[in-house]
Write a structure and sequence with these properties.
The structure holds two protein chains of two kinds.
Chain A: H1 3-6, E1 8-9, E2 22-33, E3 43-54, E4 58-62, H2 69-76, E5 84-89, E6 92-93, E7 103-106, H3 118-128, H4 133-146, H5 162-174, E8 180-184, H6 192-207, E9 211-215, H7 219-225, E10 228-233, E11 236-242, H8 243-250, H9 254-261
Parallel strand pairs in A: 1-11, 4-9, 4-10, 7-8, 8-9
Antiparallel strand pairs in A: 2-3, 2-5, 5-6, 10-11
Chain B: H1 2-17, H2 20-37, H3 46-71, H4 73-79, H5 83-87, H6 93-127, H7 132-159, H8 163-180, H9 184-189, H10 193-205, H11 210-220, H12 228-254
Helix pairs in contact in B: 1-6, 2-3, 2-6, 3-6, 3-7, 3-8, 3-11, 6-7, 6-12, 7-8, 7-11, 7-12
Chain lengths: 271, 260
């Protein structure tokens, strides 16, 4: 059975936005990593993935570690060339740098230039988006306010706590007022207030009609925030559909659906 | 160009917020000033030795700054993963290579200006004159040579993931060219045919940095200015090498995995 045939697609949910403009379109995407110096023994990370993500939705991209989520995101961001297939963001091939003009991206773990202050870092990233003058200043003020870093804006990033560095990451992802926000496990390593802040930002962006794609292992959070989810396992798309539709169809919560799809059997409870 | 200059600005900011440059400048200044206070056997020509040593220190310091600053650029970005949010912006990999090169080269230029201002001040105090055109030529040609060194180190920073390995190899290559580059052709004439052919090929392939080093002697011995046309040719020669080396760096960086 082909991977396409094995994919379960649920009926669209009534909560989904009426306009179905595909912001992200992935067509037959295959990503292979060669292990040897001459490309022999390739590991397939993503197998012929077809996926569309629509404007204004919060889309959860789920899968166990090594499922192919990060590889797919890396292709979308132009970090990794696809072995086969193509991906488009707002109709532009992701291999073109201009495809990233309307994107905000928060990596799972990263550090920022520690010799800069938050203010300088945001000014640098803002200029890469060709923001200038008053527009740039107002964007910097707005995102620093959003992540509660206005008071520490002049301090060097190397003096920040881990949580503050994560918030700088969120601020840089929002500096260009993105129409599409890609978050790779945004709450990983964050304390409860940090998680609340990320969730608040996602909700706010959704309310503004922006599109959010994020991967996460926090399935409760995904269930709360996302309109639709896709579950990927061993590089294959196993299921895609609205959260409400999946819960209705499987008669169980998202966590149990996820475990069922990846074939994980929990050990029997200890007496 | 916008992204290139934004990236260059970050590289320059990094240089002046790190201690490397200040340490090298203080060492150069202290040694030169100490030398300047000594009058060996009351010789009037002592200023020539002073200039020679001061220029040698400037050459060594500027090479250290150029290679050490450039060698860590791409590996440090990949290791700290700062490359991910950077390339998630509308920035191409070619712009990253060009921006890093521009930043490192401009940073070397700034360091060189400070070194030459100090050198000029010390020499003017000793000699009572300041031949500005000679100093400008020396500065310009050294800066042009540093462009080739910076591009080589940038190419190395794409190939090697450890900045220390890259820096060591770059120092060896640059020192090798400066010390034996000019003699390769003569050496080739003494070898059996295949080796002679290889050495001749090497002679015509490597950037002849030693040609730029010759300008130092002109400054030490108060020789005439180099013809401005020759200066322009030397600049074009350096620019051609920089172009080829940066293209090679981009071709390698284009498909390089981004995380260490």
């Amino acid at each position: 059975m082909s991977s396409e045939a094995a994919t379960i697609r649920t009926q669209p949910d009534a909560r989904l936005p009426a306009a179905r403009e595909a912001v992200i379109r992935i067509e037959g995407l295959r990503v292979e990593y060669s292990r040897g110096a001459f490309g022999q023994g390739a590991t397939v990370a993503v197998k012929d993935l077809d996926l569309e993500i629509y404007a204004g939705e919060a889309f959860g991209f789920l899968g166990p570690n090594g499922a192919g989520k990060t590889s797919t995101m890396q292709v979308l961001l132009g970090f990794l060339p696809p072995t086969r297939g193509a991906a488009y963001i707002y109709g532009v091939d992701v291999r073109q740098p201009i495809a990233r003009q309307r994107i905000g991206y928060l990596p799972e773990t990263t550090s920022y230039y520690k010799f800069l202050s938050a203010d300088e870092l945001l000014r640098f990233y803002g200029r890469l988006f060709r923001l200038r003058g008053a527009e740039l200043e107002s964007r910097i003020d707005a995102v620093l306010e959003l992540v509660d870093l206005k008071a520490a804006r002049q301090r060097l990033i190397k003096t920040y706590s881990k949580g503050m560095q994560q918030r700088v990451g969120l601020a840089q992802a929002l500096i260009n007022h993105p129409d599409l926000l890609i978050l790779d496990e945004p709450t990983s390593g964050l304390d409860p207030p940090g998680r609340m802040k990320v969730r608040e930002v996602i909700e706010r962006l959704k309310a503004q009609g922006r599109t959010v794609l994020f991967s996460s292992h926090e399935l409760g959070e995904v269930e709360t925030v996302c309109d639709r989810v896709a579950i990927i396992h061993r590089g294959e798309l196993k299921v895609v559909g609205s959260v409400a539709g999946l819960v209705r169809e499987y008669q169980m919560d998202l966590e149990r659906i996820f475990l069922k799809i990846i074939g994980f059997t929990p050990p029997p409870a200890q007496p | 160009m916008n992204a290139i200059f934004c990236l260059a600005g970050i590289v320059i900011k990094e240089l002046y917020r790190r201690k490397d440059f200040y340490v090298l400048f203080v060492i150069t200044a202290v040694i030169t000033l100490l030398m300047g206070t000594v009058t060996f056997f009351h010789q009037a020509g002592i200023v020539r030795y002073l200039k020679d040593i001061c220029l040698l220190l400037i050459w060594v310091s500027s090479l250290v700054i150029a290679i050490v600053t450039t060698a860590r650029q791409i590996p440090a970005e990949c290791e700290s993963r700062t490359i991910l949010p950077l390339l998630a912006k509308p920035v191409s990999r070619w712009q990253v290579v060009a921006g890093k090169f521009t930043g490192c080269w401009l940073a070397c230029g700034l360091a060189l200006v400070v070194f030459y201002l100090f050198f000029g001040a010390v020499c003017a105090a000793k000699e009572g004159r300041l031949p500005l055109a000679q100093y400008f030529q020396a500065f310009w040609l050294q800066w042009a040579m540093l462009a080739v060194v910076v591009s080589l180190a940038l190419l190395g920073s794409v190939v090697f993931s450890a900045p220390s390995a890259n820096a060591t190899i770059c120092f060896s290559v640059v020192a090798g060219i400066l010390l034996v580059g000019a003699y390769l052709e003569k050496l080739a004439a003494l070898q059996p045919p295949i080796l002679a052919w290889l050495l001749t090929l090497l002679y015509f392939t490597i950037p002849h940095l030693e040609w730029f080093y010759a300008v130092r002697e002109r400054l030490v011995f108060d020789q005439d200015l180099i013809a401005w046309g020759d200066c322009a040719l030397a600049t074009a020669y350096a620019a051609a090498y920089v172009g080829v080396i940066l293209c090679a760096a981009w071709l390698l960086f284009r498909r390089k995995p981004l995380t260490a």
